[in-house]
Amino acid sequence: MSFREIRNFIEQMRTLEYPGSISMESFRRPNFPLLADILKFLVKSFESHVNIPTDVATEASRVTFIRAVAQFMVTKAHVKLNLKHLYQADGYAVREMLKITSQLYGALSDEHVTPDDQVAVDDSEFKFDRGSWMSDLKAARQLTSEVMASGASLCDLLGEEVALREKRTAAISRPLDISETEKAFEDALKEVLLSAERTGELLRIVESDVAILDAKIEQKMKEVEWTQTRLQTCQSIRPVYMDEYEKIEAELEKSHENYVVKFKCLTHLECLMDQYSKVEKQKLQEAVNARRTMARFSKWGAGADEDSDSENSEDEDPGDHREECRQATGDSFIKALLGNKVSEVSVT
Questions:
Q1: Residue 17: phi, psi to the nearest 5?
Q2: How far apart are alpha carbons 42 and 93 in whole angstroms?
Q3: Distance (Å, rounded) from C-alpha 334 to C-alpha 328?
Q4: Does the N terminus or the C terminus of the chain have fewer Cβ atoms within 10 A?
């Protein structure tokens, strides 16, 4: 309860011409007589000829009065009240009564509005957003179709009421047969007993399944424990030939390192041998080309005899030169091989 709510309630009650006096301190404490008088006035304001209980002397009569007022407000004013707060007759009750007085005050203020005032109302009050009411329009259309379908089905059912009424009357007027009733009860009792037996059998089957599953789970747990123990034992035991295996593994690593070094040296030496052969071939070709050039120059400066002698000498010289080159190449190759052997011995 707030000061503003009490002030608004008092102002609205004065506007509604309540004959009694209401102060700011009236509902600081529970005041049920004043509450009952105000509720009677509000009910009479909605409908003057309504009949509600006016006795509020006892607790039961107060409860009846509160219920009657709340039911009237729900049906006539569409206002839902909290019965517990009303029965307290304090500030919370003022908050509930404010719901009723707000409607009466709003209706009274609308009556005092003149046509000129209505014309002077801002047009912005009648503006609306199209997107906001599209969902409401769809819901209204859906509800309209549902109402039409419900009305059609209700009309069909009411059309069948004439025939059904005769059957219902005949069934009601027919005398009750005790033997048939007992038989129907016995049949129903048998069905119930049979369903109970079936349920009991299902429960027993479930219990047996649970016991079997528990036994399987226990067996699997034992197997897991045994497997873990076996694993720990195997991890703690050292194999018999593990020392020899580690020794051979170390020797193998050393052998592999030696093999890698030798392979790298051999590859490098092969590369050097190829380069050396290319250089020797190039030198040999250059020497042959130089001798041929010298022979041509000697042809131009000498006579025919000398040319023939020079030709014979040229025929002999290249062979001698080739022989000398081959001999030099063989000597260099032997020296290279000896150098390779010496390097391999130094590496090993």
A1: 65, 50
A2: 14
A3: 10
A4: C
